Amino acid sequence: MSEKKAKVKAKEKEKSKDKKQTAEARKTQKQKLNGKKKADQTHVESPDLSTVFYLHAALMVGKRIVNGVLDFYNGIFGIAPTDKAKIYESVSAHYFRKGLHLKAINSLREWARLEPENTRALFQLASAMTKSGKIKPAINVYSKILKLDPGNIDALYAKTRLFFKRKEFDKAMENVDELQRRAPENPEALYLIAMTCSRCDKIDEAIEALKKAIEINEDEIKYHQNLGFLYERVGKNDEAAKCFSRVMELEDEEYEDE
């Protein structure tokens, strides 16, 4: 092979190599652009564009999507706020069932944001916060519920209970009269009232609340037990003994039922 032919062949080989590298570079760049495009689409809305969100969206509003999966992903953000609220409600229920309360909080926040006067959404948000140990934020949400619906007994009870749990007995005591007025036949509310009064040294009121709780639900052991403790505090030992005897009877009955 002449030297001239060898040079031509080497040049052709180098050109072929350059073409291959250029093609590979274009392919890599295209992949990066596609990846960026997908990432941008994924982060159009915050915070919950998870697979679960899309799954629930597909189940609930899929009938509106007529052009297949691509149209679904492109059109998901055109869902009406009321429908989107239902999706977040469904997602939060999904997490609640799995005991994933922290994850449920994100969806519940979005639901409450879309429907700020929906006390059911707010109550579930406060419940998820409570189960996640976020007590102070939960109290704030319960307060918001009570502003929207002052007669909401469940929110009033839950808020009072959280104050008690935080050992903020004076704040819990502020709700006692209202709780007693609105839930006079609820034994658990009466029990909470009794425990709050007890911590604030209002023993007579605590005793009366527990006696009424026992009238409504005679078989609850903790009512008799705590009433016995209260009687002991005021020196009524005979009454305390009767309460503790009843506790033992109920415990025996529970054992026999097992």
Brief summary:
The chain has 258 residues and is mostly helical.
How would you describe this structure to a colleague?
The protein is mainly α. The chain folds into two domains: 57-150, Serine Threonine Protein Phosphatase 5, Tetratricopeptide repeat (Alpha Horseshoe); 153-258, Alpha Horseshoe (Serine Threonine Protein Phosphatase 5, Tetratricopeptide repeat). The chain contains 14 helices and no strands. The chain has helices at residues 3-42, 51-61, 68-75, 81-97, 101-114, 119-131, 135-148, 153-165, 169-174, 176-182, 187-199, 203-216, 221-233, 237-257. Helix 4 packs antiparallel against helix 5. The protein starts with a helix and ends with a helix.
Features:
258 residues, mainly alpha, Serine Threonine Protein Phosphatase 5, Tetratricopeptide repeat, 2 domains, 14 helices
Provide the CATH topology of the largest domain. Serine Threonine Protein Phosphatase 5, Tetratricopeptide repeat
Rounded mean pLDDT is: 81
| SSE string, helices as H and strands as E | HHHHHHHHHHHHHH
Secondary structure: number of strands: 0
- Helical percent range? over 70%
Structural class: mainly alpha
Do you know the CATH architecture of the largest domain?
A: Alpha Horseshoe
User: Which assembly state applies to the chains in this document?
Assistant: single chain
Given the C-alpha coordinates, what overall shape results? elongated
Tell me the Rg in angstroms. Answer: 33 Å
- The span between the termini is 101 Å
The description of the largest β-sheet is: none
Number of helices: 14
